[in-house]
Write a structure and sequence with these properties.
The complex is a heterodimer of chains A (230) and B (285). Chain A has two domains: 83 residues, Immunoglobulin-like (Sandwich); 101 residues, Sandwich (Immunoglobulin-like). Chain A is 8% helix and 47% strand. Chain A contains one helix and 19 strands. In chain A, a hairpin with a 2-residue loop joins β9 and β10. The longest helix of chain A is centred in the N-terminal third of the chain and has 19 residues. The model of chain A has no long low-confidence stretch (mean pLDDT 90). With 285 residues, chain B is mainly beta. Chain B is built from one helix and 16 strands. The longest helix of chain B is centred in the first third of the chain and has 11 residues. The relative contact order of chain B is 0.21. The N terminus of chain B is likely disordered. The chains are: A mainly beta (230), B mainly beta (285). At the A-B interface, α1 and β1 of A face β1, β2, β3, β4 and β16 of B.
């Protein structure tokens, strides 16, 4: 029955094509070096006052993770710090407060150099950061930016020298601690300005919460560019 | 075409070969039921560079038909009555955690209907004109972010003039055909100039093998861009040079099977992976 054989073969080919049209699996390289970061660095302390340091450990995909955090002072006669991160100013001088985390035999750390003074020191919260946006793909993307705290919000100001390709569909801007992934990143919104200065107001976000701007093509799930927040 | 996939669907109808250069005589017809498949993890950017993307797929089952109303007038139709677009799940290579869940949309695709008029039909030369209407019957905003589309949402009209000639090569029947066309697009899409060529040859009296070249050039006169079409994967100003090949085997004088392969060898805003199709056809002469 050649016709039945032919029909069967055609149906088989259609079935193979249908099955091959099923959703498969893609894997992205989202590894980043783990970091630990002091969230509230200061300029200095007046003798006999205290400051409660806070730190965040970001794991190998840039997500906050509980870790055994160790605090230390480079000069305990000037300033001491306990295991909860509470620093106490003892006498006039300079010291470096360090935070460290040891994971799998590897130690990572962050520091804050401070001055201890007999007079009151004005500790302005870190209110401004900046960086440069650059393309990591074949699509045009460049420009400088500043990030400033405004109460509990952030104001992201993109500079006049900014330019982005308008040919890419579904370009979105994120704040993230992993420039290779949007998992747990904060979606700022779709990119609707492709040239020149413009601003974004990002609600309820701290200036030290994220390390990168990330430009991401949503439909293709690929990175277009990034800007490290310095 | 409003999106990457759709441009290749458009490429598909350009590439639906019926292995001849003449219009159908009255009452005759060519009907082909095909399954077409494309899966791509890279695409051509607006500058022609190749960039990776999450694996997206497009699959459809379509009917392509040519029917002779008279000896000079033919009806032409392409109906993708089942069209599926999907994207793979995306996992972290570091943790194996799911980052973005895959998604799919099924619907009818964009239908093309038209007429062909045989301007000149001699033994040595066939000249024809085709008016093809692209109907926005597909889904142009499917899925969670609107980018799972099986149609471009616009009504276009393409006028195409084709010239073909039969010849023999190494005593084998063969034909060559060239065409030029203009695709008038709406909804702020740029119009397109299209051209191409086709070369086919018959072996063992039952097997036709043909190669095809298609070129689509955007006239860059449409205002649609990511600025005003945010979230759509159907991009404007798609351009490509496509090469394809198709083989058709006649089991009888009327009935046969076909297999096709095609892809863009150069392009702008189009997938950079090949498509495949298999089909059964009825060629009533």
């Amino acid at each position: 029955m050649p016709s039945i054989t032919l029909k069967s073969r055609f149906v088989s080919v259609i079935l193979v094509l249908l099955l091959s049209g099923c959703i498969g699996e893609d894997y992205i390289d989202d590894f980043v070096e783990p970091t630990v970061r002091i969230n509230n660095p200061i300029t200095g302390l007046q003798v006999s006052t205290t400051h409660s340091y806070m730190a965040t450990y970001l794991n190998n995909i840039g997500q906050p993770e509980n870790a055994n955090i160790n605090w230390s002072s480079s000069n305990e006669s000037v300033v001491t710090i306990d295991e909860q991160g509470l620093a106490t100013a003892i006498e006039e001088g300079e010291a470096t407060i360090s935070v460290s985390v040891t994971m799998a035999g590897k130690t990572i750390s962050d520091q804050d150099m401070i001055i201890i003074s007999p007079i009151e020191i004005q500790n302005n919260d870190e209110s401004g950061k900046s960086g440069t946006i650059m393309s990591t793909s074949g699509y045009a993307l460049k420009g400088n930016f500043t990030l400033e705290a405004n109460g509990s919000d952030l104001v992201l100001s993109i500079s006049e020298n900014y330019a982005a390709s308008s040919s890419l569909p579904g370009l979105y801007l994120y704040l993230t601690n992993n420039p290779n992934s949007v998992k747990d990143a904060l979606e700022v919104g779709p990119v609707t300005v492709f040239e020149g200065a413009h601003t974004y107001t990002i609600k309820d976000t701290g200036i030290n919460d994220f390390q990168y701007l990330l430009y991401w093509c949503k439909p293709f799930s690929v990175k277009v560019g990034e800007g490290q927040i310095n | 075409m409003k999106k990457y996939q759709f441009s290749l669907v458009a490429f598909l109808i350009l590439s639906n070969l019926s292995f001849g250069q003449w219009t159908r005589e009255s009452g005759n017809g060519y009907y082909k039921l095909s399954a077409w498949y494309l899966e791509a993890d890279q695409h051509y950017t607006d500058t022609g560079a190749i960039e990776p993307n999450a694996t997206r797929g497009q699959f459809n089952i379509n009917l392509y038909a040519e029917y002779g109303l008279t000896n000079r007038w033919n009806l032409v139709g392409y109906i993708p009555f089942f069209s599926r677009t999907y994207q793979n799940d995306i996992f972290s290579r570091t943790t194996n955690e799911l980052i973005t869940e895959g998604e799919s949309v099924n619907s009818i695709g964009d239908i093309d209907l038209g007429v062909t008029y045989g301007l000149l039909q001699s033994e040595k030369l066939a000249l024809s004109a085709t008016l093809l209407l692209g109907l926005p019957t597909g889904n142009d905003s499917g899925g969670s972010d609107g980018s799972y589309q099986t149609g471009d949402g616009e009504f276009n009209q393409m006028l195409r003039v084709a010239a073909g000639s039969p010849f023999t090569f190494a005593k084998l029947p063969a034909y060559a055909k060239v065409y030029v066309g203009f695709n008038n697009r709406t909804q702020n899409f740029s119009d397109e100039f299209r051209t191409g060529a086709e070369l086919g040859m018959q072996f063992f009296k039952k097997l036709w093998i043909a190669g095809k070249l298609d070129v689509v050039q955007s006239l860059q006169n449409g205002a649609l861009s990511a600025q005003n079409n945010q979230g759509s994967i159907f991009a404007n100003n798609v351009e490509f040079i496509g090469l394809g090949a198709e083989a058709a085997y006649y089991f009888t004088q009327k009935f046969g099977v076909s297999a096709a392969y095609g892809g863009a060898v150069d392009g702008r805003i189009i997938y950079a992976d090949p498509s495949f199709a298999v089909g059964v056809f009825l060629d009533i002469k």
